[in-house]
Amino acid sequence: MCKNFENYEKFLASVNSDLTKIFEYQKEYIVCKKGCSYCCERGDYPLSKLEFEYLMSGFEKLDENLKNQIKQNIETAKQGDRDSYKCPFLIDNACSVYEYRPFVCRTFGVLTEDAKGNPAFPFCTTKGLNFSQIYDEEKKHLSADLVEKKNFKIFPKIFRLSNKVIMNLPLAKELNIEFGEAKRMVDFF
């Protein structure tokens, strides 16, 4: 077990508290619900070494049958497209290690910004899910006209929630958390 898990869990508690507020703020645009696993069906799933170790500590707590299913899923992911694959921890449309999931999973669904500071919609937007009611398909961006026309209560705010931003929060330094190398989940196996 990683020496940083105690501090990492303190860090996660703080991040989760903030994320709860962000999801609450954007709730009228978010349609995520239990059983919806579109975001887990095809992805890249970048995470740090610490996040991977924490994820695997959750895996170790699962029963053997579930572990064997996940091990088979890992082999499938390793043999497939390394840029986009089904998350091996997705079992029956649910995350088998939900409490141990990485930041990319914790933040998915909200409106964030890309590296250039532009709005980055969740990829499920184009599938009629999160933020789809205010997304201009033709112009590929948020439509203020649609926000107004559909009488949404708040104008969506863009949040800075990249792994880099989260991992560099002052609390991480204060708790002496070292995230380690970041790479795709499949590359850790």
Task: Summarize the SSE layout with pairings.
Layout: H1 5-25, H2 38-41, E1 46-48, H3 49-60, H4 64-79, E2 90-91, E3 94-95, H5 103-107, E4 112-113, E5 119-120, E6 135-136, E7 141-142, H6 144-149, H7 163-167, H8 170-174, E8 182-184, H9 185-188
Antiparallel strand pairs: 1-8, 2-3, 4-5, 6-7
Describe the structure.
With 189 residues, the protein is mainly alpha-helical. Helices cover 41% and strands 10% of the residues. It has nine helices and eight strands. The chain has helices spanning 5-25, 38-41, 49-60, 64-79, 103-107, 144-149, 163-167, 170-174, 185-188; strands at residues 46-48, 90-91, 94-95, 112-113, 119-120, 135-136, 141-142, 182-184. The strands form four sheets. It has a two-stranded antiparallel ribbon. It has a two-stranded antiparallel sheet with strand order 2-3. Strand 6 (135-136) and strand 7 (141-142) form a beta hairpin. The chain starts with a helix and ends with a helix.
